[in-house]
């Protein structure tokens, strides 16, 4: 065997130039001399074939052109953890100096006695012992090194970034972590590793671990649950881009979890979420680009709260396939939900006016305080709910709704589409007949006004030009301006100037009136004060 090939080379991770891959074959190749490594590359474009050469299949690849043969001297099998740390933090011995036995140093071919070598090594140890937060990203770490060497040298480490290295198995991660007494944060993303497939003895290496990132490691949910037996204090778990499609109930594990990131995994369907719905402390769930098209909590009826996700405050479902308002209605069943991200779903294209869409979501989810990273102010919520109550008032009447409580019996179909409508009527009173007359339907293309928006109190703020429907209420305009200028929750005061009213400023003082009520025209200037 070639001396440059480790005895455990098969299955090991290697790098060659800037490319990463896994060794799938070690040996000879027909009609060539010497030893070859058959490598399956992470980037199939680096490969040439599927592991076969001249009709002989030497190894298998997932991609038809994902493999190639390289000579062992071209492959980097990596270094141990401490060597990478010393290299990264400039604490390694100079390359042109070799340390010999005892106090001897070799400079090229000349051997010189060096007094105080022990103190140099001790100084280096002291410097490494000061490191709390260590990053060896892309440093070709492949193994732990000598037993207990890490614990002797880096005793105070708390946070380690081991991402994009040459780690081949979870056992290597345990071997490193077990030497770090108070490890709190660990990032091993972008290492394609083998994980245990059956229950193994639980290691105490992660007993204090709070945050773990396993993005792009090819871990399955089953493997997550097996490993999680050794994560008794874990609060944040990042699992994006792992091809996780199905979930299982985390019985007895992950019970301390507060944040779970499953983004960029194509889940089989939205019902997979029911399997993780009883994690008692889960406060933040990130489901960006998971392919889900609907959300449903079948244990709760209209206007009721679900027992699922009892602590969930922040939910991200952006970049998915949600197209029906019923999924937004379902989110109102979550008892603790305060923040929602839902951009880039087909649903967001159902309304031509994005402001109308935002108002509808606010009205449908009663406890929401932040939508798509924008704070929902009390005045904005009140305006959204009042508008919602009016917009769907005629539908409510047609479905059996009535101002007389004894005759008010809206149909199941209406309640399914508008589960919050009864509570809005209780909050603000049923819509009066006068409010519903002459209402323009949402689908009507309202005439757009081109207006200049200025902040006289902030001269450094450049004027902004906006196209707004003339039917837009002053309340909605204020909601837009809160977000546009990132103004705190103080009350906005709006007025406008027109070339037809030289020197005069007209106050926009009724939140429920549309812009057209004030005879605003394109080219006019809206003034914002607070």
TrEMBL record:
The keyword Cytoplasm is annotated on this UniProt entry: yes
Role description: Tubulin-folding protein; involved in the second step of the tubulin folding pathway and in the regulation of tubulin heterodimer dissociation. Required for correct organization of microtubule cytoskeleton and mitotic splindle, and maintenance of the neuronal microtubule network.
Superkingdom to which the source organism belongs: Eukaryota
Family matches, as InterPro entries: CAP-Gly_dom_sf, CAP-Gly_domain, LRR_dom_sf, Ubiquitin-like_dom, Ubiquitin-like_domsf, Ubl_TBCE
The protein's name in its UniProt record: Tubulin-specific chaperone E
Domain CAP-Gly residue range list: 27-71
Cellular component, GO, one term: cytoskeleton
Family affiliation: Belongs to the TBCE family.
Subunit structure as annotated in this protein's UniProt entry: Supercomplex made of cofactors A to E. Cofactors A and D function by capturing and stabilizing tubulin in a quasi-native conformation. Cofactor E binds to the cofactor D-tubulin complex; interaction with cofactor C then causes the release of tubulin polypeptides that are committed to the native state. Cofactors B and E can form a heterodimer which binds to alpha-tubulin and enhances their ability to dissociate tubulin heterodimers. Interacts with TBCD.
Entry keyword annotation includes Protein transport: no
Keywords on record: Acetylation, Chaperone, Cytoplasm, Cytoskeleton, Leucine-rich repeat, Phosphoprotein, Repeat
PROSITE patterns: CAP_GLY_1 (PS00845), CAP_GLY_2 (PS50245), UBIQUITIN_2 (PS50053)
Family matches, as CDD domains: Ubl_TBCE (cd17044)
Domain Ubiquitin-like: 449-528
Pfam families on file: CAP_GLY, LRR_9, Ubiquitin_2
Places the protein is found: Cytoplasm, Cytoskeleton
A single BP term in Gene Ontology: cytoskeleton organization
């Amino acid at each position: 065997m070639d001396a440059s090939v480790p005895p455990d080379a098969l299955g090991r991770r290697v790098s060659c130039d800037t490319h990463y891959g896994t060794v799938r074959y070690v040996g000879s190749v027909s009609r060539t001399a010497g030893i070859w490594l058959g490598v399956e590359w992470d980037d199939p474009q680096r490969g040439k074939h599927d592991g076969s050469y001249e009709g002989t299949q030497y190894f298998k690849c997932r991609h038809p052109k994902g493999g190639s043969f390289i000579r062992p001297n071209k492959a980097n099998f990596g270094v141990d953890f401490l060597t990478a740390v010393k290299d990264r933090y400039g604490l390694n011995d100079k390359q042109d100096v070799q340390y010999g036995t005892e106090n001897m140093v070799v400079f090229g071919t000349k051997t010189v006695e060096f007094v105080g070598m022990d103190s140099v090594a001790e100084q280096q140890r002291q410097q490494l012992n000061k490191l709390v937060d260590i990053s060896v990203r892309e440093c070709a770490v492949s193994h732990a090194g000598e037993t207990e060497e890490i614990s002797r040298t880096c005793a105070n480490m708390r946070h380690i970034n081991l991402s994009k290295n040459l780690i081949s198995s979870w056992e290597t991660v345990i071997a490193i972590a077990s030497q770090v007494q108070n490890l709190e944060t660990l990032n091993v993303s972008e290492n394609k590793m083998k994980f245990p497939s059956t229950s193994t003895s639980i290691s105490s290496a992660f007993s204090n671990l709070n945050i773990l990132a396993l993005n792009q490691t090819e871990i399955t949910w089953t493997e997550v649950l097996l490993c999680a037996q050794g994560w008794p204090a874990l609060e944040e778990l990042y699992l994006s881009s792992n091809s996780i499609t199905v979930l299982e109930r985390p019985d007895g594990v992950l019970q301390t979890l507060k944040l779970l990131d499953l983004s960029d995994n194509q889940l089989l369907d939205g019902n997979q979420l029911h399997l993780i719905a009883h994690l008692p402390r889960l406060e933040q769930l990130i489901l960006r680009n998971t392919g889900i098209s609907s959300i449903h909590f079948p244990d709760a009826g209209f206007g009721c709260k679900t027992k699922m996700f009892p602590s969930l405050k922040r939910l991200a479902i952006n970049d998915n396939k949600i197209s029906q308002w019923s999924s937004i209605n379902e989110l109102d069943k979550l008892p603790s939900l305060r923040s929602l991200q839902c951009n880039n779903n087909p649903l967001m294209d159902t309304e031509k006016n994005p402001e109308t869409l935002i108002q509808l979501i606010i009205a449908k989810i009663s406890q929401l305080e932040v939508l798509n990273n924008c704070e929902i102010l009390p005045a904005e919520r009140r305006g959204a709910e009042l508008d919602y109550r009016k917009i769907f008032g005629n539908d409510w009447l047609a479905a059996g709704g009535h101002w007389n409580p004894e005759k008010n019996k809206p149909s199941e179909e209406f309640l399914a589409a508008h589960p919050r409508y009864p509570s809005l009527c209780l909050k603000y009173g049923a819509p009066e007949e006068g409010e519903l007359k002459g209402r323009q339907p949402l689908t009507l293309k309202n005439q757009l006004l081109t207006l200049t928006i200025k902040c006289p109190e902030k001269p450094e703020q450049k004027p902004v030009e906006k196209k707004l429907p003339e039917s837009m209420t002053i309340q909605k305009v204020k909601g837009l301006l809160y977000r546009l200028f990132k103004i705190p929750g103080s009350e906005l005061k709006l007025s406008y100037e027109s070339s037809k009213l030289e020197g005069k400023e007209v106050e926009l003082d009724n939140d429920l009136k549309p812009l057209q009520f004030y005879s605003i025209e394109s080219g006019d200037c809206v003034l914002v004060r607070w």
